[in-house]
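Agenda item 2: zinc ion complex prediction
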Amino acid sequence: MKLQKFTEQCFAFTGAVTIGYCVKEGKGLLIDTGLDDSAMKKVKRILVEEGLPLDYCVITHAHADHFGGAHYLKSKHDIPLFALKLEKAIIENSVLEPIYLFNGAVPINELRNKFLEGQAVEVDGELFTGENTIGPFTFDVIDLPGHSHSQAGLLIDDILYAADSYFGSETLKKHVIPFIVDADQTLESLEKLLHISCKGAIPGHGRFEENFTGTVKENIELHEERMKSLLAVVNTSPNGKTIDHIMREYLDLHTITVSNVGQWLLFRTSVTAYLTSLERKKLLSFFIQNNELIIKPC
Ligand SMILES: [Zn+2]
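Presented output:
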């Protein structure tokens, strides 16, 4: 983890996950917290070494790698937390992530780990789309749903902290099928990013770029290809297939070998999101046959 400076006000701790940081008039604002206590201890140590303050924390979305350290930050350093309404509800009731991944049922123990269930914590303030003020900081909250239901991007001092609305090229290649909950919203958010002019942007996973258009376009192309190859899997069987069958063929097609239940469920959410988008376009339909949920081309 290292502290990178973009402007007089804007910085980020870079590494596996981006933790944004802004300073103004002697106050410090953190954007996301990393996965756990140890990420926050490292951030705190670097800030103390650099003589930089920490007073507030904004959380972009309720995924454990972005808010898992928030409980530590609040309980040990009394830092108030801010998030958009729906993400706030999940951060405060973090068991909801393994619950939704497990079809709404009480999740099996294997899913109750720090990667899927960050430590729950009370969020102090709600953010709103548009201009927000916290202490001396004034920033724009940009709605960027699709990767999560109510993800926020932050535009502050002309730097965009884009959360997981797009991924850096290396991360995109590593994930193969990125996590999404809504394919249409994901594409709309990516399109929105193409029209934001600012000094530069940093995603939740990836590096800072002054011109991030090319990387955003790579994300758009990847989702379009993933959707097209999924429809091709569905189309090979006019009578339809179960989602498990589609999952197996689709993962094989992308040479993915899943190693645990959590990872499979994350992929299933993305596949379901793509299928839902294709259903909206009337390219396939869902129905029940012989007590099985079948997806068939239209
Ligand atoms: Zn995320």
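Discussion summary: DSSP finds ten helices and 15 strands in the chain.
Owner for follow-up: CH.
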